[in-house]
Structure to design on (328 residues):
C-alpha cells in the first residue's frame, strides 16, 4: 500500500465466521484503493482471502449494476430496462400490498441469507417484516442441523477463541476446507505447527487443499462422520484416554454414554467409514494423547440426512478428553 494514501478501517461483509478486519486505501473521488487484512488485528493478522483482496475490482467493475432493472418481457425473459430507484421502490411496495390485501400478511415471506450483504443490509428488512407481520422461518437451512447437533453435544452455541489454535498441540479440522473458505484458520493452525510442533488432522471426504496440509489425513465416506466420532470415543474410553473427572464434573450421564459406545468399535466404524481399523485407532490415539487439542468443526459434514447426528457425535469428543479445560 502507498503510505501517502489515507487508510480506512472496515470489516468484511461476507457470510464467513472470520469477519476479517480490513485496511482500505481511500484515494478520494468516491473510490477505494487496495484492500488488505488489518495487520494489527490479532485474528486477521494481515491475511485475507483472494476474493476480498480483489474487492476493489468488484466495487468499481464496469459491469456492476448501479440502477434497478425491470423485466420487460414474460417471466424467464432476459430483456430488462433500467428504472429509477423511486419507481423500483414503488413497484415493490405495490406488489407487497397487493399480496397482503389478497391473501393476508402471512402470504409475504422475506426469504434471504447473508451472502455478501453484511449485518445491516441482511437484517434491516426485519423491521418491515415485524411491522407487517409477514411470515418468517424459525432458522436457516444453512445451519439448523449443525446448530442442533452442536447444542446436543455442548449445551451452547459457543467455543474457544479461534486464536487459541496457535497454542494447541493438535488442531483437528473436521468437515471444513479452511484453505479455501476460512484462510485465517490456517494462519493460526500452521503457526501452532511452526512454533509448537503441533499436528494438523483433517477429516473430510476428498483430498482437498486443506487435506494436503494435513499431518494426519482422514478421508472418509460422505455422511459417516458420526460413526467415526463414535469409534474415536470408544477408543478413548477403552484405552484410558478419557478424562473421567472432567466428565463427572462437566457432562451429563458419562457412564451411560460410555456404555452406549461399547459396541461402536473401530471394526464397526471401519465398515461404515471406509477407513482401516488402524487409521481409526491412530486418529483416536493422537487425540487421546494430546490434551491441548483444538477442534474446528465445519458445516460441510452436517449437510446430509444424518448431519445433526454427525455434529452431535463429533462435538462430544473434546468433552471425553477434557480438552475444554485446556487453553488451545
Amino acid at each position: 500500500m502507498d503510505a501517502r494514501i489515507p487508510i480506512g478501517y472496515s470489516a468484511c461483509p461476507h457470510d464467513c465466521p472470520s469477519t476479517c478486519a480490513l485496511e482500505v486505501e481511500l484515494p478520494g473521488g468516491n473510490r477505494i484503493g487496495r484492500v488488505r487484512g488489518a495487520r494489527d488485528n490479532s485474528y486477521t493478522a494481515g491475511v485475507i482471502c483472494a476474493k476480498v483482496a480483489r474487492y476493489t475490482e468488484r466495487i468499481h467493475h464496469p459491469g456492476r449494476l448501479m440502477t434497478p432493472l425491470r423485466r420487460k418481457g414474460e417471466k424467464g425473459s432476459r430483456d430488462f430496462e433500467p428504472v429509477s430507484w423511486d419507481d423500483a421502490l414503488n413497484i415493490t411496495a405495490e406488489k407487497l400490498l397487493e399480496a397482503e390485501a389478497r391473501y393476508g400478511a402471512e402470504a409475504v415471506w422475506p426469504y434471504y441469507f447473508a451472502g455478501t450483504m453484511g449485518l445491516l443490509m441482511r437484517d434491516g428488512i426485519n423491521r418491515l417484516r415485524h411491522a407487517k407481520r409477514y411470515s418468517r422461518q424459525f432458522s436457516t437451512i444453512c445451519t439448523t442441523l449443525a446448530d442442533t447437533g452442536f447444542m446436543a453435544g455442548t449445551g451452547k452455541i459457543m467455543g474457544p477463541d479461534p486464536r487459541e489454535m496457535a497454542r494447541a498441540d493438535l488442531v483437528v479440522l473436521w468437515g471444513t476446507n479452511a484453505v479455501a473458505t476460512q484462510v485465517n484458520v490456517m494462519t493460526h493452525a500452521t503457526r501452532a505447527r511452526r512454533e509448537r510442533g503441533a499436528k494438523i488432522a483433517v477429516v473430510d471426504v476428498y483430498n482437498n487443499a486443506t487435506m494436503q496440509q494435513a499431518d494426519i489425513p482422514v478421508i472418509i465416506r460422505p455422511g459417516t462422520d458420526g460413526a467415526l466420532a463414535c469409534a474415536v470415543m470408544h477408543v478413548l474410553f477403552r484405552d484410558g484416554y478419557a478424562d473421567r473427572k472432567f466428565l463427572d464434573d462437566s457432562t451429563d450421564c458419562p457412564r451411560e454414554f460410555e456404555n452406549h459406545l461399547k459396541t461402536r468399535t473401530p471394526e464397526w466404524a471401519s465398515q461404515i467409514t471406509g477407513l482401516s481399523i488402524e487409521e481409526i485407532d491412530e486418529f483416536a490415539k493422537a487425540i487421546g494423547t494430546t490434551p491441548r487439542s483444538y477442534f474446528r468443526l465445519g458445516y460441510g459434514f452436517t449437510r446430509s440426512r444424518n448431519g445433526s447426528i454427525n455434529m452431535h457425535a463429533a462435538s462430544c469428543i473434546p468433552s471425553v478428553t477434557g480438552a475444554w479445560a485446556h487453553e488451545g
